């Protein structure tokens, strides 16, 4: 009998591609949505019924009836942020209690992880990574250093003592940093943290690797949801300006405990242009009126931090790289409507580095390259009201066709606005 496979949706750029909306749109086809990596540094924005919502840890299927949402072992969880998020969801009239389960193997972000994050970023000065200061990096560092606290530890009688041991170790580390300003009241946050840990106990703590595989064996359609973007992958992104987890499709296997042979479709999401939050190389970044126009029309501000996003033209060198790395089967293009009023649209097809032309993504992420552009006539047509591919203007169809030819991958969904309904499925 053929094995049931799990489908994956993930970002192909530096995050902020619109994964939340896509998961929400795709969820009616699935009975389970599972997050496999990242933490509350993620911000998945959903817009429906004229309202908007940003999710940070809870999978984006939470608003769909009859869908179980799994926080997998590859995720790092801040109990305070998780419970605040759940409370906000429940205020919308959504009953979360029977729709959310949490892996025992997921690691906890401690208040001292947040302090270590702030200390590290402050000490780096101008070379700072651009961390969200949510404690993600230190939590993953403890995980790989075999020093982490996990969700399953909450159930142990000596949990408070385990916490204190970790706190003391972190306090010793903090003494090694230059003086810095803690961006939150530690004692108050620690108090909230323990209250949130107690509240977490109302949700099932599960052996998620068994749970997910048994669901697949039973024929349950499952969608795995990634956070951040492929160019922020700890191994293959623009290191060191990356996140602390594997954001590629391969991360699904370790982040949920499934075999590679059980991965089915890989939906790769990208914007019709590029954005980036924080530091690091960004070859097609714009510092002119076009860049400002993209930011203003696209409302390009971080869903988690509120920081203005850096903006630039679509980078085909980077996109082909992440399509290859993820084994993308279906492309999904977001925010096409943001470029409705541009007379000319550009795409980087290669990089110039000294006297060399580069057509493959470089080791350093394109730190000192000049993009080589191909120009396209703009479509100068409002896309937001269109609901069929046949209605798209010729110039926009040519833009789509070029991307498909370059990547060897079909664009199966085109988003023409933030709302659920502003989605064209081909």
Q: What would you note in describing this structure?
A:
With 426 residues, this protein is α/β, with parallel strands linked by helices. The protein has helices at 19-26, 79-91, 111-124, 136-144, 159-174, 186-200, 208-217, 251-256, 289-297, 316-326, 394-407; strands at 6-11, 32-35, 44-48, 51-55, 68-71, 76-77, 100-103, 107-108, 205-206, 222-225, 263-271, 274-276, 310-312, 314-315, 330-334, 344-353, 356-358, 370-377, 411-415, 423-425. The strands form five sheets. Strands 9-7-5-2-10-1-11-15-19-20 form a ten-stranded mixed sheet, with helices on both faces. Strands 14, 16, 17 and 18 form a four-stranded mixed sheet that branches. Strand 3 (44-48) and strand 4 (51-55) form a beta hairpin. Helix 2 packs across helix 6 (186-200) and helix 3 (111-124) packs parallel to helix 5. The longest helix is centred in the middle third of the chain and has 16 residues, at 159-174. The two termini are 31 Å apart.
Low-pLDDT parts are none
What's the end-to-end separation, in Å? 31 Å
Oligomer: single chain
How big is the Rg? 21 Å
Choose one word for the global shape: globular
Please list the strands of the largest sheet in the order they lie side by side. Answer: 9-7-5-2-10-1-11-15-19-20
Provide a count of the helices. Answer: 11
Structural class: alpha/beta
Q: What percentage of the residues does DSSP assign to strands (E)?
A: 15-25%
Number of strands: 20
**How would a crystallographer describe the biggest sheet?**
10 strands, mixed
What is the average of the pLDDT values? 93
The helix content is 25-40%
